[in-house]
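I am still learning, so can you show me any protein sequence you like together with the matching structure tokens, please?
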Amino acid sequence: MNYKEHDEINVLETNLDDCSGEILGYVMDKLFENGAKDVFYVPIYMKKNRPAYKLTVLCANDKVDILEDIIFMETTSIGIRKHKEERTILVRSFKEIETQYGKLKVKAVQTPEGERLYPEYESARELAEKNSVSLRSIYKKS
């Protein structure tokens, strides 16, 4: 069985030296809501030793324009670097499994050793709250 695939991903990056953590959190949510595959920011130092963040967004070709517009509208960015990268990804699918706490949505990933399950955070959180147990206990039962 083939457990890996190859594709291409767009990488959008911008450095932000005058953007608060609250703004970054909001922007991250907006980017995910509009199709970003991944969003992260890391602390950096810019010229004159100014503390800043580098915002990185991974997305498909058809999402570049809308995600750039969100970055320009919601941050102080005046420029976005972008490039394409090849990547190897594991074959994945989504399904529900039955646990002692109820149905849990998981990502099923194929590996050379077989299938590996990863709980979807929102689904695990809902079960933890519904059953008054720790999130960790939901993760352990999947």
User: Anything to note?
Assistant: The radius of gyration is 19 Å. The first helix runs from residue 21 to 33. The chain has four helices and seven strands.
